[in-house]
């Protein structure tokens, strides 16, 4: 996959939740990784890397990694032909990262600091950052320094989290970037636009920026000194395509989490940060990433004349959807939860995997082109394809399955947590629990798949009602 193709296909939706905005005090980050309707992902516990020189197959970006790293979970591509695209994970220090949310810089900015085709891009970011960082803030500074030194091939948003903080970093040009700490009582839903608003350069607790960004903007008449430095206005876009493709997803997320704010489809320039009307549960975050404008005229699963007016959050191009939950009062290098839904979030199951697993289930390490029955990716894609045959009729069975499995998985997590303090081998304990979570989902999903296949035999176009008197 070339960088140009990445920009075309990798158009994701992200969510970040501060610890006081969540129901249990977790810091949560998550994203739908959108690429192609059939492009398998794997899920692995990556080994701690030793010093080596990394070279990106996507852009040719090269960096010497001189220090050993730590293990981390990741969802790499099924093929290494175009690079790793590790995308998301929690490392052995209990730090989470998700990369990237594709975005676009305006031509005024790129005229003076163009993207570097040989700079760091999405394909490399997790691999050269996540194994080496001890906190979310350190992740921001490490990636920011790489972008400043080597340049970036893309404009992107990158999510970081630890037990205390969530941070969002945006690359606005070839070498300039900003990052903002998500307030503890707030959340953000981001959809393929540069989204960070006013930068307070004096507030270094909550903002980190590239060296010289203000002077750069002033020198090139992109920003007038002594006025608010609104990053998304100076570096980003807000055009007719954004109004159809990006802003509606932000509206949908804010309607779900802050209905009192009254966000309406058709609105643009919504605030980057919102306070939720009630504490956000993990399944609230799942509902955001699985949203396809249900119960509105814009739902593509309906026959409404406006069904395809706006690009939904959950769509057929999603490779995988993840939520990385950094929980209070636990060691998140072991007990952080990597929730993973292979395929389309609206038609899949979020399965919880503990960050401390020693290995992932075999079917999560399989899957290529074409379809194969031994792959977790293809299992959940198959579920969605069968549901698609009559989505209006099958969505209740699908929703019932998702609800039932969430209840079982939450119960399994609670039972496992109670054993952590007394376990002789905590990594073995969480690996067993994670495998059990995957098995519970596998068996229930296979049962619904069997039911949908059996039911589908009744609707063949070659079916003919035989006269009982013949």
From TrEMBL:
Keywords, A to Z? Dipeptidase, Hydrolase, Protease
The EC code for this enzyme is 3.4.-.-
| Ranges in a coiled coil | none
InterPro entries for this protein: C69_dipept_A-like, Peptidase_C69
Catalytic activity, as annotated: an L-aminoacyl-L-amino acid + H2O = 2 an L-alpha-amino acid
Example GO biological process: proteolysis
Any GO molecular function: dipeptidase activity
Entry annotated with the keyword Methyltransferase:
no
Alphabetical list of PANTHER family matching this protein: LD30995P, SECERNIN
Would you identify the family this protein belongs to, as annotated?
Belongs to the peptidase C69 family.
Descriptive protein name: Dipeptidase
* Species of provenance: Schleiferilactobacillus harbinensis DSM 16991
